[in-house]
User: Which sequence fits this backbone?
């Protein structure tokens, strides 16, 4: 392609903050990293590790007041606090329990609220009493109204996901189709043979993070804020090449712990193209067809890799179609998936360079995100205006879209930042 684009383009924007994902990154993105982002200490006493302090702490060990057995790491303060404080939300959530009789019967719950601060066994008894009195809410139902529960068997609302993708994700017919198919098939299968592994590829600002947010919300209602959804960002969590072994160990411990606590955990790895070769291979055993690994089954977990690697290959194919006068929507998965898997495997800067994950066919789908055109940018501007509660002003829509830069030089078809800077540009109008 005439315009060789740097796959790192757009990363600066990401680091600067703003938007759901950047906000998350600011918090310490691996779910529950303490806000103070304290660093883990290595065995040799080196405190320079950028790995989130909580990463090596399996969740099941982090019950209230539980002792963290690994002295070199600090517990996940936010998660721990949330769990310990869980019952304080009971009175706030009470209006949800309809009916006076029911409210009266839930009296013990209010008592539980008070008792929670004292000791957890009493809370359990109070909850049991409340559920027995109400008669039609099980202990679990009641508990899960007030605390986030891992509902492994919960079915996916495929039509809601379909609607959301079709309404909100612009210009990505392949991603919409494959993600729907993959998730519906996986979640409908009561006995999957391996975890679902999706690898999302494409230019900056084409919607990879946006989609992973939608997927996360459809799997766990709190989405990226859920205790069962975990986001890793390579440059934030695995920056140093000399710590690969440490990252591998911590990643294994982190995933093992979280899947033990919730089998349907979701793990999102952003900036795969910035991940040092070999790091991701540490999780290969978890992605394989094993029934269990050390007593833990990973088969219901979902792994998503997000990467700019392969963006040039996708663009080339899209351009070929365009130049041949063919419709964008005519591009099929088979036109891109094989090219992507080979391209990524041979690309030293893909995070999956010569990776056993590809070698062993452990990635279920390579999902291409097509470069966005002028009309898609306009759609993003309109969506953003609506999200801000403003009326759509077509003059502003055009002005914002025309401020974006397009490539290749001659044809100027594709936005080089996708829809990424739309939000900030709109602020000036
Ligand atoms: N295809 C799209 N449809 C609708 N909105 C989009 C699309 N692509 C991007 N956006 C908008 O632009 C924002 C930035 O996109 P997003 O972070 O998903 O890009 P990305 O592909 O993950 O980029 P990067 O590779 O740089 O991380 C999104 O939050 C969303 O508002």
Assistant:
């Amino acid at each position: 392609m005439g315009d060789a684009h740097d796959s790192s383009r757009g990363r600066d924007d990401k680091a600067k903050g703003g938007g759901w994902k950047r906000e998350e990154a600011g918090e310490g993105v691996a779910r529950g990293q303490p806000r103070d982002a304290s660093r883990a200490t290595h065995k040799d006493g080196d405190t320079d590790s950028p790995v989130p302090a909580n990463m090596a702490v399996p969740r099941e060990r982090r019950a209230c007041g539980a002792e963290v057995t690994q002295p070199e790491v600090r517990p996940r303060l936010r998660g721990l606090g949330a769990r310990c404080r869980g019952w304080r939300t009971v009175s706030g959530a009470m209006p949800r329990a309809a009916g006076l009789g029911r409210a009266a019967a839930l009296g013990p719950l209010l008592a539980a609220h008070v008792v929670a601060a004292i000791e957890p066994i009493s809370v359990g008894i109070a909850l049991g009493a409340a559920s027995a009195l109400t008669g039609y809410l099980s202990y679990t139902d009641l508990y899960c109204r007030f605390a986030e529960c891992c509902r492994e068997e919960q079915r996916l609302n495929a039509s809601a996901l379909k609607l959301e993708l079709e309404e909100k994700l612009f210009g990505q017919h392949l991603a919409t189709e494959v993600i729907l198919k993959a998730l519906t098939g996986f979640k409908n299968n009561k006995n999957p043979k391996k975890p679902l592994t999706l690898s999302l590829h494409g230019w900056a600002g084409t919607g990879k993070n946006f989609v992973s947010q939608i997927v996360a919300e459809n799997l766990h209602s709190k989405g990226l804020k859920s205790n069962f959804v975990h986001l890793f960002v390579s440059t934030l969590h695995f920056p140093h090449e000399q710590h690969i072994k440490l990252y591998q160990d911590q990643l294994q411990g982190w995933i093992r712990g979280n899947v033990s606590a919730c089998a349907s955990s979701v793990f999102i790895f952003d900036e795969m193209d910035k991940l040092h070769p070999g790091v991701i291979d540490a999780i290969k055993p978890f992605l394989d067809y094993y029934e269990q690994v050390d007593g833990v089954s990973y088969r219901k977990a979902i792994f998503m890799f997000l990467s700019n690697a392969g963006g040039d290959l996708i663009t080339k194919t899209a351009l070929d179609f365009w130049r041949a006068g063919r419709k964008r929507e005519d591009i099929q998965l088979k036109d891109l998936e094989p090219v992507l898997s080979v391209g990524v495997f041979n690309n030293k800067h893909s995070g999956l360079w010569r990776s056993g994950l590809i070698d062993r066919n452990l990635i279920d789908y390579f999902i291409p995100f097509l470069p966005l055109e002028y009309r898609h940018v306009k759609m993003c501007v309109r969506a953003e205006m609506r999200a801000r509660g403003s009326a759509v002003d077509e003059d502003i829509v055009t002005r914002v879209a025309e401020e974006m830069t397009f490539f290749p030089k001659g044809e100027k078809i594709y936005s080089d930042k996708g829809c990424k800077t739309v939000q900030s540009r709109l602020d000036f109008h």
Remarks:
- The pocket of adenosine-5'-triphosphate is lined by residues 10, 14, 19, 21, 168-172, 202, 204-210, 308, 372, 380, 418-420 (CB under 6 Å).
- The chain has 20 helices and nine strands.
- Confidence is low (pLDDT under 50) at residues 1-117.
- The two ends are 34 Å apart (CA to CA).
